[in-house]
Amino acid sequence: MASLGVGLHLIRKRGAGRSAAVERRNLLTVCRFSVKTLLDRSCFETIDDSSPEFINFVSILEHILNHRLKGQTTWFGYESPRSFWDYIKAACTKVPHNCIRSIESMENVRSSRAKGRAWIRVVLMEKRLSEYISSALREFKTTRRFYEDGAIVLGEEAGLLADMLIGLNTIDFSFCLKGEGLDGSCPAVIDYTPYLKFTQNADSISSDEEEMRTVGSSGSESSTPDKAATAASIFTEQSNLVSKCKRFEQKYRMALEQKSYLEELVRLREAQLSEAVSHNKALQQSLADTHLSHTLEKEQLKYIILELQDQLKSFQSLEQLSAEMSLSQTSLEPSNTLSLEAKQASTRWPHQDKEETPSLRGLCGSLTSVASYKSLASLKSSECLASPATEVSSPGITPS
């Protein structure tokens, strides 16, 4: 009996694991279909709260983010239900310029579920849903603390979810954050009918033809072959229309993919252009600074050149003055010597034949002393570069 109980427990555990894997795969598949329908609908009209595709997408996203979410443990040990907003609020704090604080301060949004729905609408309008999801999944410890084992956000499919939501950045959403969609009391219900597709094979087509023929033949006994021909022509027209619709749908999807690719390329080029513009502004600023420093250095060099020219002129004037003084000194020295010799001759000439008296001896001595004094004064003036006026007007001597 014990072995039977253990076997039943293992079977139940495997079945639960298999059902959880199927649930995860179905939710991700339906989310991918919902994103595609939103992209298709955005080509024809603006997506808002009244769009059924958007309502279904929000319900699917809520189911994915609430999948195997742990309850909040109270003081008494009980677990109360929790919304994914608590996880987003804790895991997305590192997102630059996040909107968590603004959503927390909303007056008309009270419950945690309503705040989570408001957050989905805000980040869709900001075109940053994939960025928030990727940032939350990188916080593995926080995710582990909020979710149980087997949750979608803890599995390998979480990365696919973030990549899947990038396509929503090409849609321009318009929401009212005061509408009925933020009511936290109403549950999120997924509508699977838009994603169910009926494929018609050759057997079903042949059975439809037989039904149409039997209906045409049993209408009245007086039916003619023309009615059968018209029914066949109608069926062929319908098949042609179906094939044309399929071709048109294929072309439309291709054009839509090209449109999304071109929009992403344009966004990339705009980012590169803004970066180039900022770099150009920085280069222009550096060029202006360089030009200003160049002009300042040029003015300083001009001022230095003018100062050097003034100093050179003053040095030239001093040299010229010293040259003039030396020339005047050399021109005055022979005349002084000649005047002294003439004076000595004049003093000696009248008294050659007379006897020398004491008075004459004293006069000759004084004259010789005066002559020696004059020669000494001229020697000092030549050494000190004195003027001729000071040489002539020495004390005690009058010019002849």
Distance between the termini: 164 Å
| Major sheet strand order | 1-2
Estimated helix fraction: over 70%
* Largest beta-sheet details: 2 strands, antiparallel
How many H/I helical runs?
Answer: 12
Low-confidence stretches: 198-205, 215-225, 347-360, 383-400
| Mean pLDDT, all residues | 75
- Radius of gyration over alpha carbons? 58 Å
The best one-word shape is: elongated
Q: What is the strand content?
A: under 5%
Q: Please give the number of β-strands.
A: 2
Structural class: mainly alpha
* SSE string: HHEEHHHHHHHHHH
Family: Belongs to the RUNDC3 family.
Biased composition (Polar residues): 215-225
Keywords: Coiled coil
Region (Disordered): 207-226, 341-361
Describe the secondary-structure layout.
Layout: H1 2-42, H2 52-65, E1 72-73, E2 79-80, H3 84-91, H4 100-104, H5 112-126, H6 129-138, H7 140-146, H8 157-164, H9 202-217, H10 225-348, H11 358-384, H12 388-392
Helix pairs in contact: 1-2, 3-5, 6-8, 9-10, 10-11
